[in-house]
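4.2 Preliminary Data

To establish feasibility before requesting continued support, the project team ran the inverse folding procedure on a target of 247 residues. The structure was first converted into the token representation described in Section 3, and no sequence information of any kind was made available to the design step. The complete token record follows.
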């Protein structure tokens, strides 16, 4: 950990079959935050410390030019750590803080069940962000109730009024009222950059989806539609928005 804080040549670190205390993990996390490495491989796992997350957020903070994708769904899916809901929400909030000044991340993905407050913090950070062009908000195992869905969609609509770089976003498993869907439509109408949108249309009226498609700047790429009953990856047309973050 001490060596990582001062070394400026090491770019990859591998720690396998290593055992240490919680205090040791915290020390290593501090070293990763101050390091310049870009690759980290380890089997160390703890509900208290997510080492890979610490490294990736450090890369976002220092505007690492090779850090173009922040996939929180992968970073927060460690079986030991994922059960710690409060830690996940804190991690999302930290990621939001990092993104406010970051200029390198192009693709942002979050596909875990998180509290609405954490999601709202992340969406709000995109108002000032000038690099993210692709946003994916997906909760495969949990669709928030309509009241929460409306709050999330309202935050998205508010963000779209001021964000100047986002060109594509995907929103899945988010129950919304007709009023919530209409608010998002209004924001899409006034946004001059959006070219592609994927919306799980199970709670979006068909006429709203049609208007969203008509409002997108590139009609040939408009794909807002009612989602199939199967998962996206099961039946994904070639024209549909990429499900994985793009390099």
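Position-by-position output of the design step:
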């Amino acid at each position: 950990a001490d060596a990582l804080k001062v070394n400026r040549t090491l770019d990859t670190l591998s720690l396998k079959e290593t055992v240490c205390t919680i205090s040791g993990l915290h020390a290593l996390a501090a070293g990763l935050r101050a390091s310049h490495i870009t690759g980290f491989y380890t089997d160390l796992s703890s509900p208290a410390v997510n080492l890979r997350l610490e490294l990736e957020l450090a890369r976002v903070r220092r505007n690492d030019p090779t850090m173009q994708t922040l996939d929180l769904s992968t970073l927060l899916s460690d079986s030991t750590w994922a059960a710690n809901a409060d830690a996940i929400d804190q991690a999302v909030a930290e990621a939001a803080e990092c993104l406010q000044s970051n200029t390198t991340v192009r693709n942002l993905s979050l596909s875990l069940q998180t509290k609405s407050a954490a999601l709202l913090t992340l969406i709000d950070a995109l108002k000032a962000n000038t690099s993210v062009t692709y946003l994916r908000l997906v909760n495969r195992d949990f669709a928030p109730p309509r009241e929460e869905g409306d709050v999330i969609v309202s935050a998205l609509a508010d963000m779209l009024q001021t964000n100047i770089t986002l060109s594509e976003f995907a929103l899945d498993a988010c129950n919304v009222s007709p009023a919530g869907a209409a608010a998002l439509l209004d924001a899409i109408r006034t946004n001059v950059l959006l070219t592609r949108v994927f919306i799980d249309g199970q709670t979006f009226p068909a006429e709203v989806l049609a208007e969203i498609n008509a409002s997108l700047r590139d009609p040939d790429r408009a794909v807002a539609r009612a989602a199939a009953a199967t998962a996206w990856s099961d039946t994904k047309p070639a024209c549909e928005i990429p499900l994985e973050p793009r390099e």
